Amino acid sequence: KGINKGEKNGRYSHGMIHTQFYRHWRIMKSRCVNKDKKYYYGRIGVSFYWYKFKNFKNDMYESYSKHVKKFGEKNTTLDRINNNGNYCKKNCRWATKQEQANNRRNNRLLEYNGKIMNVSQWAKKLGISQTVILTRIKYGWDINKILGPLCQKIIKYNGKKLNVSQWARLLGIKPNVLHGRLSRGWSIKKALKKCL
Q: Whole-angstrom Cα distance, residue 145 to residue 128?
């Protein structure tokens, strides 16, 4: 009574079926073999080498435990280092949610002034939205225009010192509208007054 059929047959003798660690393995496996899933990685050629849970446990449990101890179970995710690579010991690590978000396939790396960061990191550093950066990339702007001085420019007006994005937020307009006005040569007074 109360014993899962699989456990009875020895399939779940590891005793971890209800753990978060087991759930990571099950999700990874499903992404690679279940064609009905939204995130079916098999379609892009990603496969996995841990067909048996015990092999996954042998390779990944010790590092999982260390990561959980440092960052907590809710902030521990299974991450492929190379997004084009397979799920295997040499290409997998435990990462925080933020680290995994920074490692997404659609998160482009941009180099400016000797620094390489992804779109999310540049947006945070410059105080502008990711959408603004991605839109500029889409329209073929060069890197100096995408991330250059205009993004970081501090504008003094009416006793306030704010960057372009902060002014846009304050005035209730999209940052790219204000950036557009300034890059077309509008004076600061005209660009901001038009909004007020």
A: 14
User: Which of these, 75, 18, 20, 150, lies nearest to 28 by C-alpha position?
Assistant: 20
Q: What is the pTM of this model?
A: 0.53
3-state secondary structure 131-178: HHHHHHHHCCCCHHHHHCHHHHCEEEECCEEEEHHHHHHHHCCCHHHH
Profile the chain (196 residues) by mean pLDDT over runs of 10 residues: 43 80 93 81 83 94 97 94 88 89 71 84 78 82 79 80 81 77 83 67
Q: Cβ neighbours of residue 101 under 8 Å, at least 6 residues apart?
A: 107, 120
Beta bridge partners of 79: 93
Phi-psi category of 71—alpha, beta or left, where left has phi over 0 and alpha has psi -120 to 50?
Answer: alpha
Of 148, 178, 149, the closest CA to residue 166 belongs to 178
